[in-house]
Amino acid sequence: xxxxxxxxxGPAGLMAAETLSAAGFSVTVAEAKPSVGRKFLMAGKSGLNxxxxxxxxxxxxxxxxxxxxxPIVAEFSPTDVADWxxxxxxxxxxxxxxxxxxxxxxxxxxxxxxxxxxxxxxxxLQTRWRWVDWKDGFVFDTPEGSQTNSPDVCILALGGxxxxxxxxxxxxxxxxxxxxxxxxxxxxANMGVIVNWSPHMERHFGAPVKGxxxxxxxxTHKGEFVISARGLEGGGIYxxxxxxxxxxxxxxxxxxxxxxxxxFARMKQQPVKQSLANRLRKALRLDPAKIALLQxxxxxxPEGMELAKLIKSLPMKYDGPRPMDEAISTAGxxxxxxxxxxxxxxxxxxxxxxxxMLDWEAPTGGYLINACLATGRWAAQDAIKRGV
Length: 388
Ligand SMILES: Cc1cc2nc3c(=O)[nH]c(=O)nc-3n(C[C@H](O)[C@H](O)[C@H](O)COP(=O)(O)OP(=O)(O)OC[C@H]3O[C@@H](n4cnc5c(N)ncnc54)[C@H](O)[C@@H]3O)c2cc1C
Hints:
By secondary structure, the chain is an alpha+beta fold. It folds into two domains: 246 residues, FAD/NAD(P)-binding domain (3-Layer(bba) Sandwich); 123 residues, no CATH class. It contains 14 helices and 19 strands. The strands form five sheets. Strands 12-15-14-13-16-17 form a six-stranded antiparallel sheet. A five-stranded parallel sheet has the order 6-2-1-10-19, with helices on one face. Strand 7 and strand 8 form a beta hairpin. Helix 1 packs parallel to helix 6 and helix 10 crosses helix 13. The protein starts with a strand and ends with a helix.
């Protein structure tokens, strides 16, 4: 029986384990933490967005570099992900903006069912096994001391470099660099930005700002974001975060469905003796969070057409990105040039890298988990085809 070692028990590693064990490999999953899939479980806290129910070509175009992920997500597409979840008896539904979630919303029922399947397929799990070196074999620090494993196939699935407390600390980059493997420096993707708010904003912390258009650099996104104590975060901000990382100015259109002329005309109908905040609320139905943002970023507010233009394009001054450890995902990682099309290291036959540790990025919306699952499966299938 051929042996396979999977290092890392996130969605990418577990999918590699599922595929190889189904093909008859004797599979061991080694995980540094005391339990599996901690980031996956965290992802489920606010609703596990497994994939996006959109046209495949649109789905493929969301990745950067799109060309790398195109064939891989075609092999394990949004439809396949939904079917796979259903196969684990997890019903899914498509929510707003085509995002697909398990009905349970959380990740734990799915992970439990998945681990049950892996167990039934004979997958061995070694927790508290931390991969620390790559010499003649794969060297681990374990509670029983140092262990070296020399499998026929090894799939590295160690995740990116954010939320280190959940396991993915990016420390693996040094092990790979020592092997002369090209690793692109990490940077946060899908990250929030810092805003040093005035005390007036405190009562809006946690407020969602919905139905807006955000613009930064060449990026435009219609959606929503959240005002937090630390700054701005949420899907809309993450969608333009690539430009924010380059410190590009950020603007928000608070009323994308109205022209400035219509805003101006409606405001003009309001008696000027009322406070400006009241007029904004009555004439435009702007909610308190949007009015607070206007006042925070553009006080003293102008009147007339100048005000209408500001509502259409309010500059939101920020003080740089939030720390990388808070990012939903990270860009950078194992360079595409280091790998074959099958995700095997060109200079290390039988050793693969999958998931977020690869140098690709995508917005939130289900792209991340779908691609992690797809790369795990893709590499495992390559190993099966090679018949190592
Ligand atoms: C708060 C939050 C919410 C998210 N929500 C979503 C969402 O709804 N939808 C979505 O698509 N994506 C979401 N993501 C992103 C998604 O969770 C990740 O992209 C995905 O988990 C990456 O999968 P992976 O298997 O590549 O790595 P990971 O899930 O990070 O797993 C890597 C594993 O490797 C282990 N490991 C690391 N180093 C070692 C070592 N040296 N030795 C042994 N083991 C090691 C880690 O402990 C970890 O268990 C979210 C992320 C966060 C932080």
